[in-house]
Amino acid sequence: MTDITRAKLTYKIPIPNYTFGEELVNTLSHGIGALLGISALVLCIVRASLHGSGSAIASGLVFGLSLIILYAMSATYHGVRPGIAKRILRICDHCTIFVLIAGSYTPFTLITLHGRTGYTLFGIIWAMAVIGILLNAIDLERFKGISMVCYLVMGWCVVFTFPELRSNLQHAGLLLLIWGGIAYTVGAIIFGIGSKLKYMHSLWHFFVLAGSILHFLCIYMYVL
Fold this sequence. Notes:
Blueprint: H1 3-12, H2 20-51, H3 54-79, H4 84-113, H5 115-138, H6 144-156, H7 162-168, H8 171-192, H9 200-223
Helix pairs in contact: 2-3, 2-9, 3-4, 4-5, 4-9, 5-6, 6-8, 8-9
């Protein structure tokens, strides 16, 4: 890597100035998330294999992998020392948020909703995820605001299918889905001020974990 390339990366991808303690909590929290993601993947595939269809198995696989990818990438990013590698990992870390959102939608679109509504929403969500990933890869800082809007829009697109969800998903499952969305949304607000107050980014990590756990319970118990 040339000095010019290094300089461009340093300029275009600043690294938040977290303390050692903050980064330790950030790394451990999402390292635990990665381990839970592996467990979720295994449980989802086993349950789908025993009780579901091919779509259920594929959906469980996508959802489980999206959990592992996000949490493993986040833990790795926060765990490495500041430098070029950390700057590149920061881009990957933000990109995996889109992967998790789309991966979490997949079981609901292919199983709970299915049909025209489900397949349409599936296509829209994954298209938005691809666009978001490309924008982050092009210039993370420039498109940071757009990315945050995309996270929230993608996350709450589901409200447009609420009547069908309410018909096809048990009430307890619907509550888990909604509360998971609320946890992610509160986390996004905390993320917005995470660089200004100590340990706020770590708190965001725990809200993301809570959202993932709630959505896993919903998908495992009421979707697959």
